[in-house]
């Protein structure tokens, strides 16, 4: 971690009165956990932060304290904004279409995606920390800022979900120390686990079953992939956010080194999620198509030529497995 950058970030965050905090589209537990964790901490310090994300809050994460503070992205930035912050978002575009017309630069980027090239004025990208919520925790510790039970719950949720419940490579002693500290500060591990992992809706479960039935294996069963077709949503009653976690179904199979999920969208596009057990760098594969992420979890989306790109990604996976 770059101490000089952290100090500059602490100074700017600490003096902002009307900060605006953003995170990535199709937000996950780390996106919401980081957004709210920073929001709570800055509020505690007397600021009035605005928390925005494309689509607002999704039902699954409404249990997070303060979730009603999360609002849908507005078309223009509030005029009194004195600090614009992007969290957990590897590229400028992933902050959302509406933000692209905003003229203010992103003042601070805090992230852990290895593919993040730094599109902010100040950039803190720590790929050794497995969740952006963990990067925020370190910043708050260094700053000596109070972490309330609400903030601790949000940050713990971010770390738990982005490490697959402390299972993925990247989880180390520091991760567990941060989690332990957050529990001391008020996060409840079993309640958070219940909300994140034991509360899927019947619609999400129905979607999961439909998607599981598409399983295909290739490359000596080292590559496994799933498909989502547009009509799966109507059939199951689920919606876009319900795809989170489905890919774990394939990477959890013994011997599978790369798992992928191909979602064919109504408009002819293709959304690809990639997971690796660690021997294949899926960030390299996603990046070669213009996407990104981490070594073990990455993604890319294509606006058109869905079938062709589906085949190209599978071929790239085969090539990576053969090398
Ligand atoms: P997921 O498969 O859960 O959607 O995403 C896995 C990881 O890849 C996340 O860290 C996410 O930020 C990154 N990722 C997913 N899709 C894209 C994409 O289209 N572009 C980039 N740059 N990163 C992506
Ligand atoms: Mn993250």
Task: Write a short abstract of this structure.
Helix content is 37%, strand content 17%. With 323 residues, the chain is α/β, with parallel strands linked by helices.
Give an overview in words.
- This protein has two domains: 3-197, inorganic pyrophosphatase (n-terminal core), CATH 3.90.1640.10; 202-322, Diaminopimelate Epimerase, Chain A, domain 1 (Roll), CATH 3.10.310.30.
- 37% of the residues lie in helices and 17% in strands.
- It is built from eleven helices and twelve strands.
- The chain has helices at 3-15, 29-44, 132-143, 149-162, 173-184, 189-197, 202-212, 231-236, 248-251, 282-288, 306-322; strands at residues 19-23, 50-53, 70-72, 83-87, 108-111, 122-125, 216-218, 223-228, 258-264, 270-276, 292-293, 297-302.
- β11 and β12 (297-302) form a beta hairpin.
- It starts with a helix and ends with a helix.
- The structure holds guanosine-5'-monophosphate and manganese (II) ion.
- Guanosine-5'-monophosphate binds next to β11 and β12.
């Amino acid at each position: 971690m770059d101490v000089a950058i952290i100090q500059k970030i602490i100074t700017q965050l600490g003096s902002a009165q009307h900060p605006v905090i953003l995170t990535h589209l199709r937000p996950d537990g780390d996106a919401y956990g980081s957004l709210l964790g920073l929001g709570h901490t800055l509020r505690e310090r007397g600021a009035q932060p605005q928390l925005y994300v494309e689509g607002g809050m999704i039902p699954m994460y409404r249990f997070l304290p303060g979730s009603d503070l999360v609002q849908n992205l507005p078309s223009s930035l509030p005029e009194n904004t004195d600090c614009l912050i992007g969290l957990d978002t590897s590229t400028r575009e992933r902050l959302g279409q509406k933000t692209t017309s905003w003229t203010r630069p992103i003042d601070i980027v805090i992230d852990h995606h290895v593919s993040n090239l730094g599109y902010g004025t100040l950039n803190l990208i720590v790929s050794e920390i497995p969740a952006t919520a963990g990067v925020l925790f370190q910043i708050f510790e260094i700053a000596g800022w109070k972490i309330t039970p609400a903030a601790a719950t949000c940050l713990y949720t971010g770390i738990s979900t982005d490490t697959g419940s402390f299972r993925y490579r990247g989880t180390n002693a520091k991760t567990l120390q941060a989690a332990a500290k957050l529990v001391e500060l008020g996060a409840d591990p079993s309640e958070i686990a219940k909300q994140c992992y034991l509360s899927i809706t019947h619609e999400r479960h129905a979607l999961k079953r439909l998607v599981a039935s598409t399983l295909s294996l290739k490359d000596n069963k080292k590559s496994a992939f799933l498909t989502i077709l547009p009509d799966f949503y109507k059939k199951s009653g689920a919606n876009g956010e319900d795809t989170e976690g489905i890919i774990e179904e394939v990477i959890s199979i013994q011997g599978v080194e790369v798992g992928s999920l191909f979602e064919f969208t109504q408009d002819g596009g293709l959304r690809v999620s990639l997971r690796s057990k660690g021997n294949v760098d899926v960030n390299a594969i996603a990046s070669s198509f213009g996407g990104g992420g981490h070594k073990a979890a990455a993604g890319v989306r294509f606006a058109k030529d869905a079938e062709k790109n589906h085949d190209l990604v599978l071929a790239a996976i085969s090539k990576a497995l053969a090398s």
